[in-house]
From TrEMBL:
Organism: Streptosporangium longisporum
Pfam families recorded: adh_short
InterPro entries for this protein: NAD(P)-bd_dom_sf (IPR036291), SDR_fam (IPR002347)
Taxon lineage: Bacteria, Bacillati, Actinomycetota, Actinomycetes, Streptosporangiales
SUPFAM superfamilies per the UniProt record, alphabetical: NAD(P)-binding Rossmann-fold domains
Protein's UniProt name: SDR family oxidoreductase
Family as reported in the entry's similarity comment: Belongs to the short-chain dehydrogenases/reductases (SDR) family.
Keyword check for Transferase: no
Amino acid sequence: MSSPETRVALVTGTNRGSGLAIAEDLHDRGYRVFSLNRSPAGRDRLGEHRCDLADPAQIRSAVGRVLQEAGRLDVCVSNAVDRVLDPIADLDEADWDRLVAVNLSAGFHLLKAVLPALRASQGLFVAMGSHAATRFFEGGAAYSATKAGLKALVETLLLEERRNGVRACLVSPGAIANLDGDGSPHKMSTRSVARCVGAIVDTWPRDLVVGEIEIRPSGLPEPPVIGIDRLLHV
């Protein structure tokens, strides 16, 4: 069991990219970090629990194990995401269903599982959204639709649970260099995104809630672009 003074964070999708960077940033800030990953990264400091976020039963079970081990929860970051960028005419129905399950429904089931603990700690629920929720592009039907739904979920959570001491924040980033070896000067680094999330979690006053924060790369490429690369131009 954690001591009452130990802050506890649960992050989904920490085996790579921005999720890994967020987990490591929170660990460096003194949080005891737990992770839900379909494919574990094998890093002890991540406190990993194997969980397929497309399966609500696995989410409930994994969260239950985390809460039993940690004894409390102060922050939950819903980060895990799946992405298929096919045109509607070519988009497989199974891919659509999986993106809805992982990108949207998993956030709901995760929230339901952690909400009592966040009420008890007057904690914070952070969801990693995307500019794709409002800036649409060719091939982005499934990805954009799920991110738009996530935006609605977080805003409704904020309206309903703020009176119970639970804060909620949607982080809406533009293009992130999430893939290994991606050093594009026109994308945000995962470390920079993690520092932004960490600041919201750890340093902003508790009597203030950041309902949504939008972050963008500081550099712009030359147009024209199509598809998901449109997110580089906002």
